[in-house]
Each structure stands twice: as C-alpha cells, then as structure tokens.
Amino acid sequence: MAGRKSSAITSRDGTPRTDGGGPAVVTLTQHAGRFDRDLGRLFSGFSALSTRIRQELPVRRDAAATRNVYGEQQLELDVWMNDVFVKAFRDSKLVSQVASEEMGDVKDVGRGRFSVVLDPLDGSSNVKSNNTFGTIFGVFDGRPLPARGSDLFAAGYLIYGPATTLVYATAKGVHEFVQGGGGRPKEFLLITEGLRLPAKGKLYGIGGHREKWIPEVKAFVGELERELMNLRYGGSFVADFNQILHYGGFFAYPAQVDKPAGKYRLHFESNPIAFIAEAAGGAGTTGRERLLDVSPKGIDQTVPTYVGNQDLVDRFRARF
Ligand code: FDP
C-alpha cells in the first residue's frame, strides 16, 4: 500500500503505541487541527459519535415508517444517525448549513464557517446482512449549498467494519485513522499518512444491472475482465471505494439505459469520494466530465459515478 505508515502502528500486536517507545501517536483532532484548527474541532465532535453509533447498531435494525426524498425505504438507523449528526453539527457552532441524503432540503443550523454534506448511513441494505457500511461527509468553507465538488475544503468517511476507521482528505492529502488501540478506546489514531492509490489497480466493482449498463460500461468491464482484474462488489459505496483506495482499481455505479443519471447522489456520495480519489492521485468522472466540475443544479441530483486509478478512469473516459 502506498502512503507513509504512522509510527502509531509500530507495536508488535498492531495496536497504536502510546508507550513512549517511539515518536508520539497522533490523534485525528491533532492531525486535522494542524491543517485547520476548526476542522480539527469539527472532526473531534463528529468522530466521537461513532462510539454511540456502534452501541446502537444492534438495537436499531428495523425499517422506519418513512421514505427518503428518493423514495427509498428508510431504516430506523438512517433516521437516527441523520438526527445525531445534524445535532452535532449544530452544537459545534462551526457549521451554518447541513444537507443529507435523508433530508429533503438544506438545513440552516447556525452561523459557522462550514457547510456540510452527508450520507449518514451509506450502504443501508448491508445492515440486515451485517455487511460493511459507513458515513460519507464533505465540508465546504464559506460556501452555501448546493456547491460544486471542486470547492470542497475536506471530505471523508467513517467505516463501521470489523474496526471503525476514518479516512479524510484535504487538498494536502489523504489520511487514515483507526478507533481504539493503545488503551484509548474512543480516540481515532493515525495509521497511514499521505495515502496514495497503488500505481497498478487490482480490483474492479460495478453496481446496477449488467443487462442495463450503457455499452461503454459493458465494453470496458470486458477489458478489465480480460486483464484478470479481481471483481469485488460489497453493496456499499464507502466500503467498495475503500478497497480501491487500498488495492487500486476502478469502481462505478454507472449510467444505465433506463437510468442515465445513475444512482449516486452528487453531493452526498460522488463528490466527497471523487475528492478523496483525486487527493490520493486517482480520478472521478461521470463519463463525460470530471465529477468535481459538475455544476450543482439541486441538492438531490444524481450522477453516473466512476472512480479509481487515473489511468483506468482515463481509459474509460476515452470511450465517450
Ligand atoms: P444503499 O442503497 O444500500 O444505501 O447509494 C446507496 C447505496 O447503498 C450505495 O452505498 C451502494 O453502493 C448502492 O446503493 C447499492 O445499490 P444496489 O443495491 O443497487 O447494489
């Protein structure tokens, strides 16, 4: 894996060391705070929620009585997580607007400098089967929503997998943290600084229905299969992209002949992930244009989404 391993994982059992046996461990708040003090404070409050979320996972597994603006059945967990995050952003006093996949409109929450976009529970259908899901977020500085992806100040995601990890990106790079270890169960500690996509991609994954994929996608997937890339599809964008970040490759929820605008929400899913992909040396496209350049029309717009290694995304784009 590309990137600089932090001294935080030098202990023999893999737990972040806090024992003074090497350079000090670095927490998420410290790390992000060096880039921007307010961002560090924002992440501190936001990431602390993961402990509560973990505790609620076993007890909030049922469907809610509501559907989101996309007509999708919400889970109790979708609604609860949305409310918990919105409250945290309001309480932070650092945020003025929040928009999320689970709310119809942009919400005014204060007078802070940041606007936050959020998919509180990405990969909801994985809750029932106990597969991986996460939370995606994007942070704008002094920009009202909806905003263009290229104006993102920071973006990241939490993954509630076997371990809880957090990846965040700014224009300065992509960094990964794990919660716990070294006797600090609630703290997110740096494990890799300056993550880069490996030079050669190994994996690919494509959502939707093969029969309905547009011809450009069918043909490109044929090429990847002939090149013996490994297929991995887990049903949550955040976890599927995280594999690409670590092993390299190409991931898409594509345009389909019956759904030319794809499934993923530009603000809550595609832009934050494309921002991270670019900051890690990769790329993100709609097929016709760079994802981060898509002009925002509405907070709920969807876009075909293709992300991964720059060379693979370029090859795919050349088909249009
Ligand atoms: P989900 O609907 O389960 O919340 O856009 C949301 C998303 O999950 C992505 O995380 C995931 O990649 C995709 O939808 C899964 O869609 P399919 O069920 O069509 O595979």
CATH superfamily of the largest domain: Fructose-1,6-Bisphosphatase, subunit A, domain 1
The bound ligands are: 2,6-di-O-phosphono-beta-D-fructofuranose
CATH fold-level assignment of the largest domain: Fructose-1,6-Bisphosphatase, Chain A, domain 1
Radius of gyration computed on alpha carbons: 19 Å
Strand order of the largest sheet: 1-11-10-9-8-7-6-4-5
**% residues in beta strands:** 25-35%
Report the major sheet: 9 strands, mixed
Number of DSSP helical runs = 8
Identify the CATH class of the largest domain: Alpha Beta
> Gap between N and C termini, in Å?
31 Å
Oligomer: single chain
| General shape | globular
CATH architecture of the largest domain: 2-Layer Sandwich
Total separate domains: 2
Structural summary, described in words:
It is a single chain. The chain is an alpha+beta fold and 320 residues long. The chain folds into 2 domains: 190 residues, Fructose-1,6-Bisphosphatase, Chain A, domain 1 (2-Layer Sandwich), CATH 3.30.540; 115 residues, D-Maltodextrin-Binding Protein, domain 2, CATH 3.40.190. It is 28% helix and 26% strand. It has 8 helices and 16 strands. A 9-stranded mixed β-sheet has the order 1-11-10-9-8-7-6-4-5, sandwiched between helices. A 5-stranded mixed β-sheet has the order 13-12-14-16-15, sandwiched between helices. Strands 2-3 form a two-stranded antiparallel ribbon. Strand 12, helix 5 and strand 13 form a beta-alpha-beta unit. About 5% of the residues have low confidence.
